[in-house]
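WARN retry 2 of 3 for item q-0093 after timeout on previous attempt; input resubmitted unchanged.
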Amino acid sequence: GTLDFSQDEFIEFLNVSDDSFDLSGYEIHDGVGLRHVFSAGTLLAAGRAIVVFGGGTPAGSFGGSLVQTASTGFLGFNNSGDTIALKTPGGGSNLLEMSYDGSVLDQAMSRDPDGSGSLVAHSSANGAGGTLFSPGTRVDGGDFDGAVPIGVIDITSFDVDVSTQEITLEVSGMTPGATYCFDVSLDLGRTNPWFPFEILTTDTGIEVSPGIHRFVVPDLFIFQESSQYYRIRKP
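OK item q-0093 returned
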């Protein structure tokens, strides 16, 4: 792709807990102010990562990690040093906070070892082999150990009503009580990552026949895109 210093800037969060974490509405701030609000349905599974880019259309698999672009249009972290915080919805208390002094330039900073160590220049991290960045993966390019396979559920019926801005779909293979992510892509996920769009459970749908559940999902922006693609998966 084309190098863009603003759009290619990124920040990555890794869920090191044993449980999924709902990031919906959480905010990324720096010393200037708000940089990103995580979209509704952003459910980060245990051992998985999410990467937020400054903009553009990030292309690649990113180790199976979730990918979003900054809701404000850019990240704009200060090269000479900054403090970055992950805040609760509405910009309340800090869930995480980290600072850097600007001594590392022209490459990412990464924890060494992955997920638990101190922040170091990416190229100097053990296993990085001198590489400058690894969005969504370990420094050596491998998937995070906690990553779980994505199980895709069958969508048996699908209808879009632009006039009501609603998507009606029927789904098979859902486990009662389990949580699923309804994802959207503008390019079948081949070059663009899938984005989490809505959280579904069998309780939020209607069982129209044995093992088949119907859901109605609002999409206020559906008329703005010429084509969109969808899937349902276990987070």
